[in-house]
Design goal:
By secondary structure, the protein is an alpha/beta fold. 31% of the residues lie in helices and 26% in strands. It has eleven helices and 15 strands. Helix 3 packs across helix 4 and helix 3 crosses helix 10.
Amino acid sequence: MRALQLERLEGPEGLKQVDVPEPEAGDQVLIDVRAAGVSFPDLLLTKGLYQLKPPLPFVPGVEVAGVVRSAPPGALVKPGDRVMAFTMLGGWAEVASAPPSMTFLMPLGWSFEAAAGTVLNYHTAHFALHRRGRLKEGETVLVHGAAGGVGTATIQIARGAGARVLAVVSSEEKAEVARTAGADHCFLAAGDWVSRVKDATQGRGVDVVMDPVGGDAFDLSLKCLAPEGRLLVVGFAGGRIPEVKVNRLLLKNVDVVGVAWGSFVMHEPQLTAKIAMDLAALAEKGFVEPVVSQVFPLEQAAQALRELEARKSTGKLVLRVREG
């Protein structure tokens, strides 16, 4: 089968299109891949900077959408089903395998491109807001990197929960993306967004902050938390891993909460089914609708990774693996 293989830990330049054997099914769901997501973990994997460090060469690709070729006994999907799945590795190929617990039916009417950008971002956002962030209806959520894949997913899920959403973005173009996703107010990261958040909340602050950026965004977000607010640490796309003096948490009665969906569901795989049911209901109500900004052919995955690394992209970047 046709696949993209990482041969050197040199970032996007280490990728090469090759022909490799198809994966064996075993106890996995075997999927004929139509589209695959391009995610930040993919970029880190190409540089050897992710916590998972598979031996070279390997096929990247953490999530896919396609048609089930075969499924093990007991799986909730069957051959011929249109599905989206979290693969962790192997998604940038014409055939991929995924655990049954990480393979989900696509909502009716969705394209493969939209579905390919769903599992990682939307499951992460749902897990962050509900399981870790204890979000309640009527609360206010502040989202950093709000025009990106995780950001737009967070906006939509927060709106579906009845929350008010404030967004921080890096440009007016990205502000429009966040507004289209459902943000109530957008603020530019280069401005005094802390004061604007305070104004928008009548000085109270926000109940939940979704932070996949880290660095200064984290530091300033502590100033924006309402009493008993929760700052959700999702990642460090900004490059700097921040630190916090815990007396600040004590004095304000606030929480800093770690969010690692992938490692959590390894220990509680049954959680994925509940999240998938909630997301399907939100999709049916019109809240969940993946934002796909660009679709690249498989052979241009390196360019897609460069767009992601330069933080030029909005929503989700997707690879079209085959037509259909």
